[in-house]
Design a protein that fits this description.
The protein is of the alpha/beta class. It has one domain (9-23, 45-182): Ribonuclease H-like superfamily/Ribonuclease H (Nucleotidyltransferase, domain 5). The chain contains five helices and five strands. The protein has helices at residues 73-86, 129-141, 149-165, 167-174, 179-182; strands at 12-23, 49-57, 62-68, 92-97, 114-118. A five-stranded mixed β-sheet has the order 3-2-1-4-5, with helices on both faces. The longest helix has 17 residues, at 149-165.
C-alpha cells in the first residue's frame, strides 16, 4: 500500500469493495405461510446474470456501485473512478478488496487519491461487502423471477438503492473494529 507521504492518516477514508453476480438462478429463502398450507416458490432455470461492483465507506456511509454485464479490468477502473470522484478534495481513499485478477494494484495507477489494499488470500470474512450481498439477496432479491437482463438490472438497482438509503444501516453493517487500529 502506498499512500502519498503528504497525506496524514486523518485524511484517509477506508472503502471496502467487491463484486457479486445476481441473476435468474436466484436465492430462495424461507417464507411465511398459513399453518398446514404448502407454499411454492418458483426457481428459474435460465442463465442470465448481471454483475454489480459495489463499495462502501463505513466511516461516512457513502456507497458507490454500478451494474455491468461482465467483470474485468475495464469495469474495475470505472468503479475506482466513481470512488475517486466521491472522495472529497484533500482526502485519500484506501480501497480494501480481495485479490481477483482484475484488482491488480496497477489498476489504480491513474488515480492520485486512490490506493488499493489487498486482503489476505482466502479471507472473505474480512470484507463486509459479503454481508451486503447477503443482505441484498435475502431481503430484496430472494424468491423472485426475472424476465431478462433488463429486469435483473432494474431489481438490483432498486435493491441497492434501498440498502444505501439508510446511512446508519450502511455504517453499522460495514464497520469493523480493526479499522480503528489502522489509523
Amino acid at each position: 500500500m502506498h499512500i502519498p507521504v503528504y497525506v496524514g492518516f486523518e485524511y484517509v477514508d477506508y472503502w471496502f469493495q467487491d463484486e457479486a453476480r445476481i441473476g435468474q438462478q436466484n436465492t430462495t429463502t424461507r417464507i411465511w405461510a398459513a399453518k398446514g398450507s404448502r407454499t411454492q416458490v418458483v426457481k428459474q432455470q435460465q442463465f442470465e446474470y448481471a454483475h454489480i461492483y459495489g463499495a462502501v465507506c463505513p466511516s461516512t456511509g457513502q456507497t458507490e456501485a454500478f451494474i455491468s454485464p461482465s467483470l474485468g479490468r475495464v469495469g474495475m477502473r470505472q468503479h475506482l473512478q466513481q470512488i475517486s470522484a466521491a472522495t472529497a478534495i484533500g482526502r485519500h481513499a484506501v480501497v480494501i478488496m480481495d485479490r481477483a485478477s482484475w484488482h491488480m494494484s496497477d489498476v489504480a495507477d491513474e488515480f492520485d487519491n486512490v490506493t488499493i489494499l489487498p486482503l489476505p488470500p482466502y479471507s472473505p470474512e474480512l470484507n463486509p461487502m459479503e454481508q451486503v450481498w447477503q443482505w441484498l439477496r435475502q431481503r430484496e432479491l430472494a424468491n423472485r423471477c426475472f424476465s431478462g437482463y433488463q429486469d435483473i438490472v432494474e431489481q438490483l438497482s432498486r435493491a441497492w438503492n434501498i440498502f444505501r438509503s439508510d446511512i446508519e444501516r450502511v455504517k453499522t453493517m460495514t464497520n469493523r473494529d480493526w479499522l480503528n487500529l489502522i489509523t
